[in-house]
Amino acid sequence: MAVYLLYTLVPLVWLLISATKTQQALLTTSGLSFGGPFALVDNVVQTFTHDGGIFLRWLGNTLLYVVVGAGGATALATAAGYGLAKYPFRGRNAVFAVLLGAIAIPGTALAVPTFLLFSNLGLTNTPWAVIIPSLVSPFGLYLIWTYTAEAVPDELLEAARIDGAGELRIFLTVTLRVLLPGVVTVALFTVVSTWNNYFLPLIMLSEPGWYPLTVGLNQWSAQATGVGAQPIYHLVITGSVITIVPLVAAFLLLQRFWQSGLTAGSVKR
């Protein structure tokens, strides 16, 4: 555990300390010690104002991809997982096998076919090229499927039907309350996945105005190479710190739901 904590926390400590340094101090002092003037506030201001304030545009793009893409993926996974768990139909085992296969296939293996498909549709270099693939979450669907099977008793659904509730009303007013821990868990996974998504936007987008934070910060980092290079590592590091703040806040606020969702069904009574 000590080795794991060291491996996890040392890069974070280095990142936080480095965000307080100027460009010159960053290259001339130790990464795990403070040095030079305390420049955190200046770095934050420069990060948001550099290159015409493009960082703020990248932040807005990332929020768009997360809200629409991750939010849509969570909604689709919840509805589909509930339906697969509670409505028997012919071929359900085949769907389950395909779902497990989809989980096993790495996203990078589908990147080129996805790019060719969206290129033929004329959707590359648009937000839809990032949002639409983000709507599909096989792991989220599988998680909701298994969670629904354990957490939602058939007797509860039958009681609601006897009271005259329709299937849509049962799902929206009864099932969703029971599935809340699982839904929040899937939402956290999809939000983190979409927020940190790098390879898909990299191949789909060529217009900097549509970049998410991951691709945009990498472009800033690339400015340190080549003829006439102007390194801005201090802004890249500060931007990285700003980037992780929303994810840390989300985990701190929703961790109780996340833990509850992960342990659902582990104890039978």
Mind explaining what this structure looks like?
The protein is mainly alpha-helical and 269 residues long. The chain is built from twelve helices and no strands. Helix 7 (138-151) packs across helix 9 and helix 11 (213-222) runs antiparallel to helix 12 (233-262). The longest helix is centred in the N-terminal third of the chain and has 47 residues, at 40-86. Mean pLDDT is 88; it is low at 261-269.
What are the defining features of this structure?
single chain; 269 residues; mainly alpha; elongated; disordered C terminus
Task: Summarize it.
The chain is mainly α and 269 residues long. 74% of the residues lie in helices and 0% in strands.
Strand content: under 5%
- The number of helices is 12
Count of individual beta strands: 0
Euclidean distance between termini CA atoms: 32 Å
H/E element order: HHHHHHHHHHHH
**From the structure provided, what is the oligomeric state, counting identical versus distinct chains?**
single chain
Radius of gyration: 22 Å
- Major pleated sheet: none
